[in-house]
Specification:
Elements: H1 3-18, E1 24-27, H2 32-44, E2 49-54, H3 69-82, E3 89-96, H4 102-106, H5 111-128, E4 132-135, H6 151-172, E5 178-181, H7 193-209, E6 219-221, H8 235-245, E7 251-254, H9 265-268, E8 273-276, H10 278-300, H11 310-321, H12 342-365, E9 370-373, H13 385-397, E10 401-404, E11 427-429, E12 436-440, E13 445-449, E14 473-479, H14 494-499, E15 504-508, E16 517-519, E17 522-526, E18 542-549, E19 552-559, E20 565-571, H15 577-584, E21 593-599, E22 601-602, H16 609-616, E23 622-627, E24 630-631, H17 644-658, H18 662-680
């Protein structure tokens, strides 16, 4: 029996003996420091430890840690001996599959080359003495963007790689090893139960055809709610998947356990193991940053001669690597690595948390009776527990009735945060795609609303709606799109608004304040979001506040955001970049984040963005500079050509020379540039 199976067997025995469930902890060996710390923690807790190394980290080429598999195993043994660790430890490959190495993806290796590369990596791991291999062929660069790989192909490649490992292992007389299969990633992983079931059936049949019925993975990875950007472990899904695989002799393994807010639920749900990786890198970086702050104090006291500049060096190396780009969220695409410092990022997170408390305070200060929230409070079903608790607490602190209409990003379902029993009594969540209402007799008011129950809502939620003629003030909160009749996000028409009989319609979907509009007796508006989160949410952000009476709404826009995101285009033609930027900037920028795009013409030297950033960055909360300039040309240089261009330029040059002012000459020169660009078939 392989070492991992023996360990899992012992964990099961301990559960029977003590009634205590356990989940095997797996650390991603991002650095030697993580390995050292993991062994010390395991010894302190009398626990086994599992090291799951990706092929980007450790491989035949050294990976980014600089270690080959044999060197990694030697280091692990040495560190275990250094602390007299006498427990069980597991050495494993994490996410072993074609194109999962950055190099294979960026260099666009063929299918054959990528599969052969993985096989060589597996052979090196087996020779080095690894205990487990995670087989994960769910990435395929040949699959068109937006599509997922056929799960049957994933199963077939999984079988092929396991067959190769077993053939090689047996030929070399190496000890038995264990296997882990699947992935939680949506690009081709076991992200839903139907796909999960198909994969299991195909894997079982494929191994049987290869005469490998005696080989079965001890771990199967499934999506249990967490990913890189979320930390709430889904206990319901975990229990369901565990029930599927335990009769097969397998355990569900969780990835992305970093920063999970409910880790105690992992063993309670029967999870076999859980990976943690990026969290350790963050902790190591924070530790180095703290050491550098101590170093700076010692330097100021004259106790050391020079600084290491460790964090600056690390950030420069990380930025140069480009590896961070694959983890960007859609709103972050195209952003600079260093747009926010670590301290600025912490400050923004703190400000985001404070927003909820500030909103509750404003509601109470204004003595508001009703708060309308028009959806997209969350980006999906999986939400940080701390976020849910903070939102629930803030809404509960409001001395007002709160109404929420879920939108396309946070549709209502049995698994959505809105279905959890955490919401205060003053919060009403609309749960149906049919319009419902709540009467508030004490306010002579009725509040209507409806919910997205899926990410798409093709039909208008407002269609055929007419408020009762009962003398009450009629309010409605909806998530919808008034901009296009063919929208898939609740297409609301002006005619539907006019015929609704509502006094006020609060809308969500557009993240920009729309201004107040009126159709029939109904006033309506998009408030936008209260705080911008990136360069896709520009300008002043806030909320709408005021009073509504029968056929009359008196509301105003209240700026609420701590900071703004702005994009500024600066034309440097005929000027220095510094002068052009100073002339274009508004008076106050210190609290805001700016992306400045330089355009126009420069001399042959171009722009020195580094010196510009150094000069101007203190004037902003954060600053990102982009160079979209072009090298200038003498606009009249081709005037003597015997061509249409030459004729055009000679005509304009005569007018240029006869122009009565510099302003006129500038206009003629610009016209010449536009004309040349058109004749050359290029953009100016």
């Amino acid at each position: 029996m392989a070492k991992t199976e023996k360990l899992l067997q012992r964990i099961a025995e301990l559960e029977r003996e003590t009634g205590i469930r356990r989940t095997l902890f797996a650390a991603c060996p991002n650095s030697t420091a993580v390995i050292k710390a993991a062994f010390r923690a395991a010894k302190r807790n009398n626990a086994p430890i599992y090291f799951a190394a990706t092929l980007n980290q450790i491989d035949c080429d050294g990976g980014y840690t600089g270690m080959r598999p044999d060197e990694f195993v030697k280091l692990v043994r040495m560190e275990a001996a250094a602390v007299n660790f006498d427990g069980i430890y597991i050495v494993a490959i994490d996410h072993g599959g074609p194109w999962l190495k950055d190099k294979q993806r960026t260099e666009k290796w063929s299918t054959e080359a990528a599969m052969d590369g993985v096989k060589r990596s597996f052979e090196a791991a087996l020779l080095a003495g690894y205990d487990l291999i995670h087989v994960d062929p769910t990435v395929d660069i040949n699959v068109p963007a937006g599509q997922t790989i056929d799960i049957r192909l994933v199963a077939a490649r999984t079988v092929e790689l396991i067959r190769h490992c077993e053939t090689f292992r047996r030929a070399k007389g190496l000890p038995e090893i264990s296997y882990e299969v699947g992935t939680e990633e949506v690009h081709g992983g076991l992200a839903d139960e139907r796909t999960f079931d198909t994969f299991i059936a195909e894997l079982k049949a494929g191994l049987a055809r290869e005469g490998l019925s005696d080989i079965w993975p001890c771990f199967i990875v499934g999506k249990v709610g967490t990913d890189l950007h979320t930390t709430l472990f889904d206990t319901e899904v975990a229990r369901s998947l565990t029930a599927k695989v335990r009769p097969l002799g397998s355990y569900i393994k969780g990835h992305y356990t970093d920063g999970v807010s409910n880790p105690q639920d992992y063993p309670l749900c029967g999870m076999g193991a859980a990976n943690v990786g990026p969290e350790f890198t963050m902790s190591e970086y924070d530790g180095l940053a703290e050491l550098e702050r101590t170093e700076q104090k010692l330097l100021a006291e004259g106790r050391i001669a020079m600084r290491s500049r460790i964090t600056e060096t690390l950030e420069r190396l990380v930025e140069a690597s480009g590896r961070w780009k694959k983890w960007l969220l859609p709103a972050e695409e195209g952003s600079a690595f260093g747009a926010l410092s670590a301290e600025q990022a912490r400050q923004r997170r703190r400000e985001s948390r404070e927003l909820l408390a500030r909103l509750a305070q404003l509601v109470n200060e204004q003595k508001a009776d009703i708060v309308l929230l028009a959806g997209d409070l969350f980006d999906g079903e999986t939400v940080y527990r701390e976020t849910l608790e903070a939102l629930s607490g803030a809404l509960g602190a409001m001395r007002a009735q709160v109404f929420i209409a879920p939108g396309n990003h946070d549709p209502y379902s049995a698994k959505s945060p809105y279905a959890l029993p955490i919401w205060p009594e003053n919060v009403h969540i609309f749960k149906s795609s049919t319009v419902e209402h709540v009467e508030l007799p004490e306010l002579s008011c009725a509040v209507y609303g409806a919910a997205f129950t899926s990410p798409v809502q093709d039909e208008s939620l407002l269609a055929d709606f007419r408020a009762s003629d009962d003398g009450l003030v009629h309010l409605m909160v909806l998530h919808g799109d008034c901009s296009a009749a063919e929208s898939r996000y609740d297409p609301i028409t002006r005619e539907q608004i006019a015929e609704s009989g509502l006094d006020y319609l609060a809308l969500g979907h557009t993240h920009q304040f729309s201004g107040f509009r009126r159709e029939g007796q109904t006033t309506y508006a998009y408030s936008g979001c209260p705080e911008g989160r990136g360069f896709d949410e520009l300008g002043e952000k806030g909320i709408l506040a005021g009073t509504v009476e029968r056929s009359k709404a008196e509301l105003s826009f209240v700026p609420f955001a701590r900071r703004k995101y702005e994009i500024l285009n600066v034309d440097v033609t005929g000027k220095t970049a510094e002068d052009a930027l100073r002339a274009a900037l508004p008076e106050e920028t210190a609290r805001d984040s700016y992306r400045i795009i330089f355009t126009g013409e420069t001399d042959e030297r171009g722009l020195d963005l580094g010196s510009l950033e150094e000069r101007f960055k203190p004037d902003f909360f954060s600053l990102e500079l982009r160079d979209e300039t072009r090298i200038g040309e003498d606009v009249w240089a081709r005037a003597q050509e015997d061509s249409l261009r030459g004729l055009f330029l000679r005509e304009l040059r005569g007018k240029y020379d006869a122009a009565p002012s510099d302003e006129e000459r500038a206009k003629i020169q610009l016209a010449a540039r536009f004309g040349l660009a058109a004749l050359d078939g290029r953009d100016l």
